[in-house]
Design brief:
- The chain is an alpha/beta fold.
- It has two domains: about 1-55 and about 120-280, P-loop containing nucleotide triphosphate hydrolases (Rossmann fold); about 65-110, Alpha-Beta Plaits (2-Layer Sandwich).
- The chain is built from eleven helices and eleven strands.
- The protein has a nine-stranded mixed beta sheet with strand order 3-6-7-2-8-1-9-10-11, with helices on both faces. A two-stranded antiparallel sheet has the order 4-5.
- Helix 5 packs parallel to helix 6.
- The longest helix has 17 residues, at about 265-280.
- The protein binds iron/sulfur cluster (SF4) (2 copies).
């Protein structure tokens, strides 16, 4: 079963929750860090990395011998990755989305392809080998998160338990990350900002037709707006995590939620089974 852990905004404790599910599980689990702009699950899981692979995407190469400088490719490109001023086009690889369209419209067959690095994938093992970790990381200045996320997802097994740490927000990288998950946990905080972003996230998962529940982090530090909203919308609140000073101290030293609040281990251990039962009943 694939559980995606998402949130409408950053800093709500999404990674805390994803890591806690992986660490509380007693069976082998895959932790997939799709938050490729800021992957930080490994800070807490501390995997032994055994392989690092570059993520390459195809970008155009212009054959200046064949190019007639007609500019069709540059006019076609929606991403301004090609600029032609009556000359063979200049290519800006970091803007290219590898759609392939420029080669299709080129009348002179002047465009071929080369691999351009946009990020990397690392594979490792944590917790004595029980937790498999795959992490995607976008190169600095990179803008193409979805291909890196697809590479991360290609390492998630079809069987067994997997936890997908999604990017924050509701844009393309999030959709790419939660696609193919069996269930989504939306992590939020009990504040007006948290509620605002939770509503956007709920809209997104409902649009995608995915089963989901909410996790409220630091539930005892804010207002009741999120709980009231979940009640009105008939949304399951899977877990309410209290704020504890010990948790903040443990976290700052690279410890997990389960180190800071050990009594939450049993609750997090049960989450996959609760989700499984809920899916079966539907
Ligand atoms: S492959 Fe697509 S995005 Fe890249 S340069 Fe060509 S038209 Fe632009
Ligand atoms: S479409 Fe082909 S021939 Fe025209 S400018 Fe682009 S590469 Fe050159």
């Amino acid at each position: 079963m694939r559980i995606a852990v998402a949130s409408g905004k950053g800093g709500t404790g999404k990674t805390t929750v994803a890591v806690a599910i992986a660490m509380a599980a007693t069976e082998p689990v895959m932790y997939a860090d799709c938050d490729v702009e800021e992957p930080n699950g490994s800070i807490f899981l501390k995997p032994e990395v055994y392989e690092i692979k570059k993520v390459l995407v195809d970008v155009p190469v212009i054959d200046e011998e064949k190019c007639t400088s007609c500019g069709k490719c540059a006019r076609f490109c929606q991403f301004n990755a090609l600029v032609s001023l009556g000359t063979p086009p200049l290519v800006f690889p970091e803007l290219c989305h590898s759609c392939g369209g420029c080669a299709i419209v080129c009348p002179a067959d002047a465009i071929s392809w080369k691999g351009n690095s946009i990020g990397e994938i690392s594979l490792g093992k944590a917790d004595g080998g029980r937790v498999s970790v795959v992490q995607g990381k976008l190169d600095v200045g990179g803008v193409l998160a979805p291909p890196v996320i697809r590479q991360v997802k290609s390492h998630i097994p079809h069987d067994g338990l997997s936890v997908i740490d999604c990017p924050p927000g509701t844009s393309c990288p999030v959709i790419e990350s939660i696609g193919e998950a069996d269930y989504v946990l939306l992590v939020t905080e009990p504040t007006p900002f948290g509620l605002h972003d939770l509503k956007l996230a709920v809209e997104t998962v409902r649009e995608l037709g995915m089963p989901f529940a909410v996790v409220i982090n630091r539930f005892d530090e804010g207002d009741l707006g999120v709980e009231d909203y979940c009640g009105e919308e008939n949304i399951l609140i899977m877990v309410k995590i209290p704020h504890r000073r010990a948790m903040a101290e443990t976290y700052s030293r690279g410890g997990t939620l389960l180190d800071g609040i050990p009594e939450m281990r049993e609750i997090f251990k049960d989450i996959p089974r609760i989700i499984e039962r809920g899916i079966e009943e539907k």
